[in-house]
Automatic annotation (TrEMBL):
<keyword id="KW-0479">Metal-binding</keyword>
<dbReference type="GO" id="GO:0008168">
    <property type="term" value="F:methyltransferase activity"/>
</dbReference>
<dbReference type="InterPro" id="IPR051486">
    <property type="entry name" value="Hcy_S-methyltransferase"/>
</dbReference>
<dbReference type="Pfam" id="PF02574">
    <property type="entry name" value="S-methyl_trans"/>
</dbReference>
<feature type="binding site">
    <location>
        <position position="273"/>
    </location>
    <ligand>
        <name>Zn(2+)</name>
    </ligand>
</feature>
<feature type="binding site">
    <location>
        <position position="272"/>
    </location>
    <ligand>
        <name>Zn(2+)</name>
    </ligand>
</feature>
<keyword id="KW-0808">Transferase</keyword>
<protein>
    <submittedName>
        <fullName>Homocysteine S-methyltransferase</fullName>
        <ecNumber>2.1.1.10</ecNumber>
    </submittedName>
</protein>
<dbReference type="InterPro" id="IPR036589">
    <property type="entry name" value="HCY_dom_sf"/>
</dbReference>
<feature type="binding site">
    <location>
        <position position="210"/>
    </location>
    <ligand>
        <name>Zn(2+)</name>
    </ligand>
</feature>
<dbReference type="InterPro" id="IPR017226">
    <property type="entry name" value="BHMT-like"/>
</dbReference>
<feature type="domain" description="Hcy-binding">
    <location>
        <begin position="1"/>
        <end position="287"/>
    </location>
</feature>
<keyword id="KW-0862">Zinc</keyword>
<keyword id="KW-0489">Methyltransferase</keyword>
<dbReference type="GO" id="GO:0032259">
    <property type="term" value="P:methylation"/>
</dbReference>
<dbReference type="InterPro" id="IPR003726">
    <property type="entry name" value="HCY_dom"/>
</dbReference>
Length: 287
């Protein structure tokens, strides 16, 4: 998997554009229960816009999260598998592409914003145990690879490195949320975190997601030994007090920036929060 691939954009962002209400701790994963057809449509729209990869709606889907909603563990596991099935159906309808099963961070389950700080109540051993069941479900659900994404802390990176080491036949990329052009969200240098995965052959790329675009050029240079994956957010900032996004990044400007990231060495390029099919269309036109 060494050729350039265009990733999709914000799944939740496009769901909201289609009229879905995501005001819920489960975020986009609640539609696995309420409206799975909307998720399939988002995948189709991103493929139509030029994406090579559909990232599943499992970012905030976890067995504890669904059990907290009142489902059984078996029902929760079935919904996690459904996230992959929907993306596979869209890929088959589109006639091209890959499916990446999203493995969101522990902070996504907490739904308190800690995926952008790494301020957790679990240590490395606890994080390893928390991730294990879902990772194994997704690894056997029919996706082409795993997308271990928005990782904010060194402890969680170490936990995922341990678990991926137990799955030698499963391909994955690993991407971090970063606070600036050198450090991941908990302050650890990205170079140190990326090195954890350098000797794992099943890890096909390491990089950054859900990070401001202005930090991406500097971060690309911090990754050694693996192809680079980048899919930042749109550059907008979240106003926690007002529960709204502030600012705007034009899709054309985003596409032009993506071409620069590619020129700097990013092999897999896409978008995260607040990016849309139009952002992906602009990347496709330029990369």
């Amino acid at each position: 998997m060494s050729s350039t691939l265009i990733l999709d954009g914000g799944l939740a962002t496009h769901l909201e554009a289609l009229g879905c209400d995501l005001s819920d701790d489960l975020w986009s994963a609640k539609l696995l229960i309420e409206d799975p057809g909307a998720i399939r449509q988002v995948h189709l729209d991103y493929f139509a816009a030029g994406a090579d990869v559909a990232t599943t709606a499992s970012y905030q889907a976890s067995i504890p999260g669904f059990v907290r909603r009142g489902l059984t563990s078996r029902e929760a596991a079935d919904l996690i598998r459904l996230s992959v099935k929907l993306a596979v159906q869209a890929r088959d309808t589109a006639g091209h592409g890959l499916v990446a099963a999203s493995v969101g961070p522990y902070g996504a389950y907490l739904a308190d914003g800690s995926e952008y700080t790494g301020d957790y109540d679990l240590d490395e051993a606890g994080l390893t145990a928390w991730h294990r069941d879902r990772l194994e479900i997704l690894a056997n659900a029919g996706a082409d690879l795993l997308a271990c994404e928005t990782i904010p802390s060194l402890a969680e990176a170490r936990a995922l490195a341990t678990l991926l080491g137990e799955l030698p036949s499963v391909r994955a990329w690993v991407s971090f949320s970063c606070r600036d052009d050198e450090h991941i969200s908990d302050g650890t240098p990205l170079r140190e975190c990326a090195a954890l995965f350098a000797e794992l052959p099943q890890v096909i790329a390491v990089g950054v997601n859900c990070t401001a675009p202005r930090h991406i050029p500097g971060l690309i240079g911090r990754i050694e030994g693996k192809p680079v994956v980048v899919y930042p957010n749109s550059g907008e900032t979240w106003d926690a007090a007002g529960h709204r996004w502030l600012g705007l990044t034009d899709p054309v400007e985003y596409g032009e920036a993506a071409a620069r990231w590619h020129a700097l060495g990013a092999v897999y390029v896409g978008g995260c929060c607040r990016t849309t099919p139009e952002h992906i269309r602009q990347i496709r036109a330029r990369v």
